[in-house]
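Methods: example folding runs. The two proteins below were folded one after another, and each record is reproduced exactly as written to the output file, sequence line first and C-alpha cell line second.
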Amino acid sequence: MKINNIRAAIGMLLLVTFLSMPFIKPIHQYLSIPNQITLFQDTNEALSVPALGNNVDTALAQQNNVLEAMNFSQFKTVSSGESSIVYELAGLPIKKVNVDVLSEYKVVPGGQSIGVNLQTLGVLVVGHHKVNVDDGQKSPGEEADIQVGDIILRVNNKEIEKMEQITKLVNEAGRNDKPLDVTIKRGEKTLKKELIPTHDEKEDKYQIGLYIRDSAAGIGTMTFYDPKTKKYGALGHVISDMDTRKPIQIHDGTIVKSNITSIQKGNNGTPGEKQATLENDDVPLGTITKNSPFGVFGSLDKDLESTKWNEPMPIALSSQVKEGPAQILTVVEDQKVEAFDVEIVNSVVQKNPATKGMIVKIIDDKLLDKTGGIVQGMSGSPIIQEGKLIGAVTHVFVNDPTSGYGIHIEWMLNEAGIDIYEEKEEKQAS
C-alpha cells in the first residue's frame, strides 16, 4: 500500500513538473528560440535572438560572411546566403538556429484606386424564378437540380461564355420540344443535368427559371507592381458574387482606372464605402488572371497613375513586421494617392500562406474624419512600415470600422507568381 502511495506521489510530482516546465523562465526562453530564421539582408537592422543568460553563449557555426556577430544576442547581415547560430553552455552546443538571409526584394507600392471587371467562367446561377404554366408556376431549373452557385459550362456540348448564348439555345430547344443537356460545375465536381425549357404563358416565351450572370464589377486598391515581371497584386481578398456570396471563378478580366467621387462613412455595425466611376478606356490598365483568397492578380499593360511612391521599395517578411506605427497608401478623392497613419496592433509570424496576418487600426484624424475608418474599396491599400512594404488592408471589423485585418505582403507576392527566393535558388543551382 505504501509503495503504491509513493508511486502515485512521484507520478503526481513528475506530472506537475512536466506541466510547469514551459512556465519556468529559462525553459520558456529556450522554447522561444526558433529552429529557423528567414530574413532579408539589411545592413541597417540587426538580427536579434533570445538571450539565455550569462552562462550561455552564442557563436556562428559557419563563418561564411553571411552574418557578423555584434554581441552575444545580435548579429548583422553581411550578405545573402545560409548560416547558423549555435547556443553553447560550457562549450557544448545545446541549440542550433539555421539562418537564411535573402537578397533584398523590391516592388513598387500601389495605393491607386482601380476598377475591376471580371468575366466569369461559364455563366453563374444566382437565383431561381417561377415560370407561368397552365396549372400554376414552376422553376424548370430548380426541378432539374440546378442550384444557386452552380456554374453552367456547356449546353448541348457548346461552351458557354455569355448569357446571350443561353437565350438562343433555350429558344431553339423550346420550339423543337427538346431538353437541354447542361454541364455544370458545383464546387470541385462537374455534373450533367437535363433541363426542359418551359413556355411562359404570360410572357409568351420559353424560360428555364434561372437567374444567371456572366460578369461582375467593383472597385478596390492596387497593392503592388513588380517592374521586373510586370505582375501586380490588388485587393488582398477574393471577389465573391453579391448574390451567392461564393468566390467568382473567372474566365478572364481587366482592371481600369477608377475615380473616387464620394465616400459613405462607416459606423458601428455598418461598413462605409467608396463611390467611384470607372474609366473604361480603349486599353485597360491590365489583365486579371487569378481571383483568390489573397486578392486579384495579373499583368499590367499600362503605367499606373504616378505617385510619390513610384520607386521600388523593399518588402518585409511576416517575421520582420513590428507592432506599432505604420502608414497606408490609399485614395479618398479623385485619383490622388495619400499616406495615412495607422497602428499595427498585432502581427502573426506565419510560416505558410494565410490571410488575416495583421490587425490594423486607423489613427489618422484626417482619414477618420473623411471615412470613419476602413471602408469598402480600401481593400488592397498597401501598408508601409519603416520604409518597407509589409502588406495590405483587407477587411474591416463591422463593429469597429477604425480597425480591420491586413495580409502579409509575402503571401500576395507568392500568389502573384513572384519568387522572392529566386536568387537563392539560382545560387544553389550553380
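Second run, written to the same file directly after the first:
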Amino acid sequence: MKIENKNVLAIHDISCIGRCSLTVALPIISAFGVECRLLPTSLLSTHTGGFKNFTYLDLTNEMENILEAWKQLDLTFTAIYSGFMANPKQIDILKSTIKAYPSLSVVDPVMADNGELYGVFDQAFVEKMKEVVPVANILIPNITEACLLTDFPYQESINEDFIENLASALQNMGAKNIVITGISFEQSKIGAAVVDEDGNISYAMAEKQPSSYHGTGDIFGSVFTAELVNGKSIQDAAQAACEFVVSSIKATDPDADKKYGVNFEMALANRANK
C-alpha cells in the first residue's frame, strides 16, 4: 500500500516565546498527520503583543538563500500556509513562492486585530498586502485585516450584511475562497464566515469563551490548513478549527498570563486520547 506524503510549507516567523506562528504551526500540523516544512520569515525573542524589549531578526536574505537551495531539489508541497511577513519584500517572496510551487495556498494576511494595525506595520504595508488577495486560493483574514484590505471602516458591532459586503469587496479585488475569522453575532457564539468562489456564505461557529488570547488565529489557521490537506471541505475545516481553538482555551488556566497563549498542547493530547 502506497502511503501518501502530505505536507504543508509554513511561511511564518519564529517567536521563541508566546505560542504563535511556527511554534504553533509545526506541532499542530504534525499532530494532524501532515508533514510541516518551514520557511521562517523572522526570529523574535517573543511575539510582539504584550512583551517589551523583544529582539527581532529579519530573515529576508536567508529566505532567498533557502529558496535558491531548494531549486536543486525535486520539491512539491501539498499546501502553502503563510502568516507574518516581516516587510513588503517578503510579500513578493511569498507571491513568487506560490507561483513556483503550484499547490493549495492558504494566506493569513497577519497585520492587525481589534481595529488596529500591529505596531510594526504601516499603511504602506497594508497596500502591499493587498497584492496577495488575488494570489491566494484561500484568504483567512480576521475582521480588522479584511477591513484594512478593502478600505472598509472597522466596526466592533457587526451583522451578516456587513460581513457579506466585506466578502464581496474582497472578491471584487480578486479573492477566491475567503474565511473571515473572529465573527460573532451573539454573546454565546464565535467563529468564522466561510465564503466560496461563487460568493455563497456559511458560518462555522463554536462556544464563545470569556477570555481572548494571543496566538489563537495561528492555531485556527494551522488546524484549518491541516484539515484541508486531510481532505475536509473548507466549511468542515473551519468548523474543526473553531472547535479546536475553543478546546485549547478550555485547557488553559484562566489565571495564566494571556500573552503566553493557550494550552493547545493539552488540547492535542486530549484529541489523541479520544
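Comment on the second run: The CA atoms of residues 158 and 194 lie 16 Å apart.
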